[in-house]
Structures are given as C-alpha cells and as structure tokens.
Design brief:
There is one protein chain. The chain is of the alpha+beta class and 220 residues long. The protein folds into 2 domains: 134 residues, no CATH class; 35 residues, no CATH class. The chain contains 4 helices and 9 strands; from the N terminus they run H-E-E-E-E-E-E-E-H-E-E-H-H. The strands form 2 sheets. Strands 2, 3, 4, 5, 6, 7 and 8 form a 7-stranded mixed β-sheet that branches. A two-stranded antiparallel sheet has the order 1-9. It is elongated.
C-alpha cells in the first residue's frame, strides 16, 4: 500500500494529547486559533543514548493554528526539561530545551462534490511522501515535535562549558582534583629504560655467580 493510500485510510485518535482538532478553526483562510497545552513526552523523545526528555515528562506547547487555502499552518514552541550525561565527565545533567517549529498540514485534494480525488501519478508521488495531512479535521503533531526537539538538543551535552572532564590515564574527575597529574614518560626512552633494567639484573646475576666461585675456591 502506498503512503498516499495509508494517509487517506489513517484514523487519528482524538484522545491522543498530541492530536489536535481543527474543526473549531474552520476552513476560512485567515482564521486563527491559539492553543496552550501541556502534554506528556512520548517514548524516546530526544537523541537516543545522549539526551532527551524522560517518557511522561511534561512538555509545554504554545501553538498558533492558522487556516490557509492549502491547509492548516502550525507555528509553535515546545519547552521541556531534558536529561542526559555529560560527554566530558560522564556525570548526569539536566537542562531546559526550547524548540521552535512551523509546519503545514495539508488538506487532501477533493472534487467539487467534496470527494477525495484519485491517487496522483507516480511522478508526483515523491513530492507527497514528506507532506503531512489533516485527517478528518485532526492532525498529529508528534513527528514535527520530535524533529524540532532533536534539532534543539546538543549532540555533545556538557554539564558546564568549563568542565575539565576525566583524567585520560586513571579516569579521576579533574574538576574535583585540579592539581592531579601523572609524571610523563617519554616513549622514545621507554625501551632503553627497560633495556637498562635488564642489564642491571644481568650484572647482579653475574656478580652472584662470581661470589659463589670465590667462596668455592676459599673452601678448597
């Protein structure tokens, strides 16, 4: 089944907090409606494994719904508290995120009797794949909201800009131990140092053998 057919057969749940009703707005171009709503964050709302709003956390929405010839133009802002992990020190962090968005939810084309027209030609299908539609007077804001929030979140979140991170040698947190350091060893001399220690051990062995020989002579 093609995406166009799937869209025509879709039935949105009006009880879903991210589904909005446009019947009150009507189809008269220029009609305007403002909506303020707090909705629970859906599952996996953010950048997976990096940062995002916990499932069920409140997301504040301020929306402006405007009726135009093609459909309903939705402009809005979403605000939520996101949680994640600092990429430098690996400590938990929380930060407020505000995501702005604007999206057109189109009406399905219909003939003079209000019947939905037949499916468009194949060459026009690609243009419709990314379009969002008003279904029976309802539209689902979730896909638009997800995209907007992902773009607003940092790909590499930090607990603060001055976070010094962890010691690359032992993993200790540097902000709590500002004087922490390790004596640097020049890798160019590391092999020679190992050789020198080997030579010293060999000299000790030789000396031990020599002393044993002297003791044997003295006993004779």
């Amino acid at each position: 089944m093609r995406k166009r057919e799937q869209a025509l057969n879709a039935r949105l749940d009006h009880l879903n907090p991210l589904v909005f009703d446009t019947h009150e707005l009507g189809r008269r171009p220029g009609a305007l409606r403002k909506v303020t709503r707090s909705v629970p964050a859906p599952k996996d709302f953010g950048i997976a494994g990096v940062i995002g709003a916990p499932e069920g956390a409140p997301v504040a929405l301020d929306l402006r719904l405007e009726s135009v010839m093609e459909g309903v133009l939705v402009t809005g802002t979403a605000r939520a508290s996101a949680e994640g992990e600092c990429v430098r020190c690996l400590e938990p962090l929380s930060q407020e995120v505000a995501a702005d968005f604007q999206e057109m939810f189109s009406y399905h084309e219909s003939d003079s009797r209000g019947r939905v027209r037949a499916e468009p030609a194949d060459d026009a299908e690609g243009e419709d794949e990314d379009r969002l539609y008003v279904e029976d007077g309802l539209f689902d804001l979730e896909p638009v909201l997800r995209d907007a929030v992902v773009l607003a979140l940092p790909m590499q979140p930090v607990c603060r800009e001055t976070c010094a991170g962890l010691c690359s040698t032992c993993g200790i947190r540097l902000d709590e131990n500002p004087d922490h350091h390790h004596d640097a060893v020049d890798i160019r001399w590391a092999a020679l140092q190992g050789l020198a220690e080997t030579v010293k051990d060999g000299e000790k062995d030789n000396m031990g053998g020599a002393e044993a020989g002297v003791d044997e002579k003295q006993e004779k």
